[in-house]
Every structure is written in structure tokens, then in C-alpha cells.
Request: fold
Amino acid sequence: MAVKTMAKDSGTGQYNAGWHELTISEATDGEWNGKRTIDLSFEGYHESMSHRVFETVNKTTNEEFKIANLFRYACAGIIDVLNDPTGKKPVIQYDDEVSNLVGTRINALFFKETNSTTGKEYSKIFDIVPVAQVTDHITWTEDDVSRLKSKAESRYKKNNSPSNVDLGTVNIDTTTTSTNDEIPF
Reply:
């Protein structure tokens, strides 16, 4: 027998299920079934750990909201915040050029999924929310972020069968606070 050495796993949990703060390293425009898509890649992650945002239109108001939320959550391309005609809700004016997303930060909810063919488990991104930050036009508080994280987790649990996916342990403050302040969107 011989004495040998091996590298110790750093255990960073880079791909663990739960929330991860990511910096967008690349954003590319695309199209799928006649709808706009934006593909995102992230600093420090393999290119296979990407996320696609699909254009989604509200059937009642006929307004696109998924790509708009991507820019709002990333605080990317924001030009100004204007008052709507009623003066009740601010309207965000933004440039939707995908290069505006590069270098911005978001929170992403990772989950584990098992490939039905190979049986191998891999990480995917379910949804994104903003990081707490103050910019010239938009402010996201810790309470805003916690509320949006809770909503994303609820959607995840509602839309996914626990038999083939794992959200892992998500550490999120569930304290409820109320405020009369308008949320900045």
C-alpha cells in the first residue's frame, strides 16, 4: 500500500437547489414559435446552465410582461419612470436591447431535475427575481425581494410534481411586513 493524496471537494454548492445571485454574462435574442426569446448565460457557470425567457402576453391587457420583468428585475436599460395618465401607477420606460442586460445581477431559483432517459440529476433555473439594490430609477428592497422569492417558490411548488424535482432547502425570511408605500413598478 502507498500513501496518496487527492483534491478535497470545495463544496461551494454552485449548482445546489435554492436561490443564487447571478451576474448575466451574455444575453442573446431569439425566436421560438413566433415569439421573442432571450437566452441568458451567467458569470462563473457552464454555458449549459443558461436560462431562456419567453415573451408572454397578458390576455386581458395585451401587454407583454415576462421580458419586461427581466429588464425591470435586472434594472437594465431603464431610461425613466413616468406617471401614467391617471397618476396612480408609474410606467417604466426602457430600452430592450439585450446588451443592456450584460453585467446586471439577478436572483435565480435553481431546482434539481432527473433526466428520464439517463437517470442523471441536473440543475435548472425555474425563475428569476431582482436583487436588493438602489438605482437612479428603481429601488428593490429586501422586503420586495423576499416577497417576489416567496411568489416564485409558490409557483414552483404549484407547477411541479415533487416526484421528479427537488427545490432543496431554501432559506428565506418568511416574516411579513406591510407598508403603504407603492412598489416601484
Q: What stands out?
A: Residues 18-166 form one domain. The radius of gyration is 19 Å. The chain has two helices and ten strands. The first strand starts at residue 18 and ends at 32.
